[in-house]
Amino acid sequence: MTMQSRRFNNLGSLAFVGGLGLAAAFALFSETNMAMIKARDFLEPMQSAGLVAQPARGITEEDLAAARVAWRYFEANVRPETGLVDSVSGFASTTLWDQGSHLLALVSANGIDLIDDAQFHERVSAMLSALEEIPLFDGRLPNKVYDTTTLQMVTYDNTPSPDGIGWSALDLGRMLMAFRVLEMKHPETGPRVRALLARWDLAAMADQGRLYGAAREGEEIRYLQEGRIGYEQYGARAAALWGLDVLEASSARTILNWTEVSDVDVPVDIRRAQDFGAITPTLSEPYLLQAFELGLNSESALLASRIYEAQEARFERTGAITMVSEDHIDQAPHFLYGSVFSNGQPWAVVSEAGEQFDELRAVSLKAAFGWDALFGTEYSQAARSHMAGLEGPDGWAAGRYESDGRANTIVTLNTNAVVLEAVHYIAKGPLAGH
After folding, report:
1. What's the chain's Rg over C-alpha atoms?
2. Residue 53 placed within a domain
């Protein structure tokens, strides 16, 4: 999810951090067993977490005003010729992850009466028409990136790629989550959604209980295991809603260890970048999405509470508002992962390639809105207040840099979609729950 090396390669997801093949998965066996032993009392910390997801509680005028700002993004960045919405404001490119966010934003906006039923159905119909027309990578599944004006398969810099560059299982998982929510909330859309999915070879994205993407390398196509802690479980929960066998990926227990960060035991992925060529950040977004769309299960509730608690603990130690997630930034390297823990380092800020950019640490607006919707603590409210002034004519900017408080001015679909989902959660609870 970069206009350079990563800008649009799985906006909002970790699909592009694949690279762990099946043989490497077997190589993990002994390390995984050790992690399972350490995690045998996995759920015991639940009793001491002290944080419970807040129920629906009705929205305030401030919440509604925040949602209106977020909706501006979708008004300003929809492409009338296709009905798709740009992933980054003004750049005619998108991923399936972001179109899943687009659809969930539409459902959220309609659910809190920002848009009426007629506008909702018009926009959904246009979007489905585009998805019915897009060419498929290898004739099987949607490509990682499309031009939002032409529907052509493209590369990350939006150069046409007639043969495509691959598919992302996690991007597809987000789209599948959105389709299930749409079908549940608006059953009349079900036949059209299912007819669309009949074109897609969904079975190709799952194997031996895990998620697999595809990448073109010259004349060859490689199939790579996708997802790291949090994102992998999110994608698996979505895929399971459509009957895919993703049992191994649906729980973090076999890949989880605990590491102390700011005096809080936080979950980390035992798969390390130096061994498997993929970053492994622990951060906010996948847990917030699970909460807003399906509701947290016992495992994700525990992990979410620990990830949140570590961020509040860092604030208490340093005085620095801390809300970490993946985000675009308005300068090179254009996309970074702010993490609680990544690749052996607490509070690491890393690029897809694993380079560290701690000097560009930012407070994520979508994380601040998300954690405040989920837990509603004094600290989350302070973090959300810290985002004041980031409203613009085409939506919310991505956040603020920690070093000097200046705005991270880039404006994205995913940031604004998460704000809409957060406000819907405050109003009505999980999208799939009603």
Report:
1. 20
2. yes
